[in-house]
Structure formats: C-alpha cells, structure tokens
C-alpha cells in the first residue's frame, strides 16, 4: 500500500469550488468520451447513513461510473490486457467538503486492485498538517506532494493550452487571474484541496512497481484538472447546486450518446 497526499491550492472559496468542481467534472467527462470509450454514468443520487471521515459526515451525493479506457493506456497494455481489464469502476460519496472516491476493477482484478481518493476542502493555503485525521501509523507512511496550478511541471505538451493556462487566464467576472510566481502566498480568496490517494495492487512481484506507476499519473491528472477548473471560472461562476444537478442530468445523456456514436477523444498515454 502506497499513500500520498496531494495538496492543490486554488484562488477561490471552498463554496465556489463545490460548484466549479462538479461543473468541470461534467465538462471534462464529455471531452474524454467517444468511440466506445470514456465515462458511463450508472448512478447519480443522494445517499444517507454512510459514515465518512471517522463519522463526521454521513450524507451527500453518490455516483457510480465506469471508465472505458481502451486507448487511454499504453499500446503494449492494450495488446495483452484481457477482457474487462480496461474498465475501471468509480464509486464516489460526496459529502462536501469531504469526498471519498474508490476505483476498482471488479471484472478482472476483483479485490486485487483499489485506488482510494479522499479529499478534504479547507479555506487555507495547504498548511493543515492532518486534514484527513490519520493515525500516527498512517501519517508515518504518507508522502506530501504540493502541486502548483501556476506551473506546467507535471504536464505534457498536449496538456498545456493558452485557454487553460492560469498564468494567462484573467476572469472577466471576478478579476482573478494571471497567476504570477508566489501567488499561493498572497492570493485572496484561497482554499486547498487535500487529496489523500491510497493505492493497493495485490499481485505478487508487481505490487511496488505498479503502485509507484499509478502514483506517477496523479500529479498530471490533478494538475490538468484543477488548471481547467480555474480557467473555466467564468463558465461556472454564479451557478447554483440546482443548476449543477440539471447540468449533470444532461451530461449523463450526452455521455451515453458520445460513447456510443462519437469519435475517440481525450488524453492519451505518453
């Protein structure tokens, strides 16, 4: 088991991020879906009586998605992967400001593979030492990785576009933008997404190698997504949660149409 905590500071409030993150998930899902691949939404509904974060939260929104990843993995993996190996199930319990997401591969690896992403959203600059209330044992195993959306450190050339570059973007609705070096220390408003990622891969002889490989993917994914959340600010700023639920319902219908009839789109492996 390998545990890393990715800290993403953002120039917005915790309340704003709740809307922006959900809007951006719907938008990013559409950009990654087509040609039989991408995101399939199975369920999106309220939940209650599910204890989260040591019982502090117990209700919110539950989603179950399947990610069809045929062209999202290296060619050699596609060549040898058996049926079901490239379909990842995602279950998420969003009890904002806390959210728990679990990725599995039940059709092939069953209980041999699990990625758990626990996110706590706090109004600070990434300075909370133990946002997830970890035990002393887990704190000893945790590695902290600070991500800066103002730099392309973990991105590929295909990920960096002027329209989603926080050092170029300026919001017309809020005046925020063009993040300069050192922005995390001075920007207002400010918040941090503390994303605790636990990876378990239980195949003997491959565990450490695969767990380390999976963790190499998250800095890119988190950096790219959160740069987009900020640079799409004018698209979602001012929306309500009622608006978001309507957008999610429409997105679910759009994703099904794109996955069945659209072309293959989205991120590719390097």
Describe the structure.
With 270 residues, the protein is of the alpha+beta class. The chain has a single domain, classed as Alpha-D-Glucose-1,6-Bisphosphate, Chain A, domain 4, CATH 3.30.530.20. Helices cover 30% and strands 27% of the residues. The chain contains six helices and eight strands; from the N terminus they run E-H-E-E-H-E-E-E-H-E-E-H-H-H. An eight-stranded mixed beta sheet has the order 2-3-4-5-6-8-1-7. Strand 5 and strand 6 form a beta hairpin. Helix 1 packs parallel to helix 6 (241-261). Residues 1-252 form the Phosphatidylinositol transfer protein N-terminal domain. It holds the Pfam family IP_trans. One of its GO terms (cellular component) is cytoplasm. This is Phosphatidylinositol transfer protein.
What are the salient characteristics of this protein?
single chain, 270 residues, alpha+beta, Alpha-D-Glucose-1,6-Bisphosphate, Chain A, domain 4, 8 strands, 30% helix, disordered C terminus, PI_transfer, phosphatidylinositol transfer activity, START-like_dom_sf
Task: Give me the Rg, rounded.
Answer: 18 Å
Structural class: alpha+beta
Low-confidence stretches: 71-82, 265-270
The strands making up the biggest β-sheet line up spatially as 2-3-4-5-6-8-1-7
What name goes with the CATH superfamily?
A: START domain
Query: Which word captures the global form?
Result: globular
What would CATH call the class? Alpha Beta
CATH architectural type: 2-Layer Sandwich
The tally of structural domains comes to 1
- Name the helicity range: 25-40%
According to DSSP, the number of beta strands is 8
Summed over residues and divided by their number, the pLDDT gives a mean of 89
Could you give the distance between the termini? 25 Å
Biggest sheet character = 8 strands, mixed
**Helix-strand string:** EHEEHEEEHEEHHH
How much of the sequence is in beta strands? 25-35%
User: CATH topology, anyone?
Assistant: Alpha-D-Glucose-1,6-Bisphosphate, Chain A, domain 4
Separate helix tally: 6
